[in-house]
Amino acid sequence: xxxxxxxxxxxxxxxxxxxxxxxxxxxxxxxxxxxxxxxxxxxxxxxxxxxxxxxxxxxxxxxxxxxxxxxxxxxxxxxxxxxxxxxxxxxxxxxxxxxxxxxxxxxxxxxxxxxxxxxxxxxxxxxxxxxxxxxxxxxxxxxxxxxxxxxxxxxxxxxxxxxxxxxxxxxxxxxxxxx
Length: 179
Hints:
mainly alpha; 73% helix; elongated
């Protein structure tokens, strides 16, 4: 047991990890955060570490992947912010038509089966990759893609009038009228 613990000595690698993180992000606080994130990932994945493997290389790979994930996340957020600014500045047509159309889309989305609604939300609204969304939902990527395809097809059918979207209607009157 002591031999296993010694082989997985992440504390002994902290200095090297900090230096590498600092060279990647060029900010001490960000580097510390990155090292912490990498160590959490390493401890979560400790079972996948081959005891005869090189711990330092393995930890550097995890740190590098965590850095790449952060860069992708920042790019995705920047795209969302840019997209928000573009739509904020874009002139809109008549407000009533826009509001009615948005309500129609929202109603159609809400009437999708839950599995399809979840997938469509994660991929189209949250802008997650297929792999990320599949991991969150705990399904294979192929299953996710199939659900997404069915959701899009169903929305198109609703748009074309091939499938009706249930609407709410009031039945009866208020309690005061019943008396």
